[in-house]
Amino acid sequence: MTLDATDKKLLVLLQTDSKKTTKELSLKLNLSVTAVYERIKKLEREGIIKNYVALVDKTKIDKGFVVFCHLKLIQHTKEFLTKFESEVIKLNEVLECHHVSGDYDYILKVLVKDMEEYREFLVTKLTSLQHIGSTQSMFMISEVKNSTVIF
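and the corresponding structure tokens:
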């Protein structure tokens, strides 16, 4: 599917506030309510819009300690990668896991309450996973930009 300028504007509006009504969106896009509704349904059918979520302020739920953890596996066989990935997916503290190139194999974005909770996570959960060779942790000092809007 090729996105036109109106589709892109609609996506930006939805990514900024997905609770806007089709009426509100139609006014911003100078389209009929039906046209906006049909465009949204098409974007959903095509898988461009995957989901609608509520973004939570992590500091208000006492989970403001963000850690970027770099991991090396002991081997790079398909079996080791698949096993690690299936296990890390189950860890609630891990918000993101990316298989990357370079010195490390994976980068995890971990969210916990504080250093003590991170240590507990590292010792009891993360390093108990099979095939991990080494880890390196970096702690977020401040969040300069965090956007979920594409375009």
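(Above: one complete record from the training split.) The radius of gyration is 20 Å.
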